[in-house]
């Protein structure tokens, strides 16, 4: 086996095969850097949910997921949000203006070495655009979409919420939120796939802009594949590792995940956070005076040893 592998790799590194491989990789890169290819790959991801139009419904929570940012106190607040973050925040503000009395929730931890979290940077942009601080909640501990799901669940419980994130990220985010038993309303932002006519040279010539669109497709495809490995659904009603219909013995744990923060504080039994399939959920500790089976077994052995000594 090792001999065959050595011969195969050695053959690939010969001038002609190596040159053909490099040319093939170059052609793939060229195709992914052109608008028709990149946006045709990206459009299906962004077509899952249409742009949200207010219909007069009552919504208490508007959750805006975090994204790329930097922090420079000398810049205007909006300049600190990069990539997709600013467009998520502006869409969240649009929905907040359409739902008076709603609370905006910003998520996202601080990058290493950064004094301000992603959630706080987004919050300051919202305040600079007219959203009062009293209508904003900052969740600055979660570092990824799974952790954002847990933090939001602890805050809002079973109340309906508007979930604002990039259109290509929304299917994966909805998978986490629905699997946790939450009630998200999908609000896509920052659509990238262009459907309007373009100049011929814009379609033909490769560009890092279109390559960035292809990169988003690859990133989200990997993320959704990881979700499927975890058993987390991206469609409501599909069984999931976090849904009670999938695993009945874990139903109390999944339901505990979506309890509001104040209900956690009022419980008689203390709560602890554990890891199940890479997703944080809540589990009750045993009441006072009740010992696990392993502890009871050790106690019986200790009592038997004391009797033998007597």
From TrEMBL:
What residues does the DUF218 domain cover? 61-223
Per its record, how is this protein called by name?
A: Envelope biogenesis factor ElyC
Its GO biological process annotations read: cell wall organization; Gram-negative-bacterium-type cell wall biogenesis; peptidoglycan metabolic process
Protein topology in the membrane: Multi-pass membrane protein
Q: Which residues form a coiled coil?
A: none
Looking up InterPro entries in the UniProt record yields: Cell_Envelope_Assoc, DUF218
Has keyword Membrane?
A: yes
- Give the location in the cell: Cell inner membrane
According to the lineage, what is the superkingdom?
Bacteria
Quote the NCBIfam families the UniProt record gives: PRK10494.1
GO terms under cellular component: plasma membrane
| Membrane spanning stretches | none
Which keywords annotate this record?
Cell inner membrane, Cell membrane, Cell wall biogenesis/degradation, Membrane, Transmembrane, Transmembrane helix
> In which broad location class does this protein mainly occur, judging by the first location in its UniProt entry?
membrane
Species: Candidatus Sodalis pierantonii str. SOPE
This molecule's function is given as: Plays a critical role in the metabolism of the essential lipid carrier used for cell wall synthesis.
């Amino acid at each position: 086996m090792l001999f065959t592998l050595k011969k195969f790799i050695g053959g690939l590194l010969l001038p002609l095969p190596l040159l053909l491989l490099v040319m093939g990789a170059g052609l793939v890169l060229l195709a992914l850097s052109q608008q028709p290819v990149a946006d045709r790959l990206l459009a299906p991801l962004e077509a899952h949910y249409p742009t949200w139009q207010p219909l007069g419904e009552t919504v208490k929570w508007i959750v805006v997921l975090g994204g790329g940012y930097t922090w420079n106190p000398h810049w205007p607040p909006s300049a600190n949000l990069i990539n997709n973050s600013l467009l998520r925040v502006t869409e969240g503000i649009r929905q907040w203006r359409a739902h008076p009395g709603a609370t905006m929730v910003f998520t996202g931890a601080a990058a290493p070495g950064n004094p301000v979290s992603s959630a706080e940077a987004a919050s300051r942009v919202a305040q600079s655009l007219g959203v009062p601080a009293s209508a904003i909640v900052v969740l600055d501990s979660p570092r990824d979409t799974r952790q954002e799901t847990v933090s939001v669940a602890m805050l809002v419980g079973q109340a309906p919420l508007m979930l604002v994130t990039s259109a290509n990220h929304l299917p994966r985010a909805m998978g986490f939120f629905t699997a946790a038993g939450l009630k998200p309303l999908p609000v896509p932002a920052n659509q990238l796939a262009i459907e309007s006519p373009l100049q011929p040279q814009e379609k033909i010539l490769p560009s890092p802009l279109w390559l960035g669109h292809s990169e988003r497709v690859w990133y989200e495809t990997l993320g959704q594949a990881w979700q499927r490995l975890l058993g987390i659904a991206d469609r409501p009603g599909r069984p999931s590792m976090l849904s009670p219909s999938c695993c009945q013995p874990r139903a109390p744990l999944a339901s505990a995940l979506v309890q509001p923060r104040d209900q956690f504080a009022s419980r008689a039994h203390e709560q602890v956070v554990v890891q199940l399939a890479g997703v944080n959920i809540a589990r009750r500790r045993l009441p006072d005076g009740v010992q696990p089976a392993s502890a009871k077994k050790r106690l019986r052995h200790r009592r038997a040893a004391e009797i033998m000594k007597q």
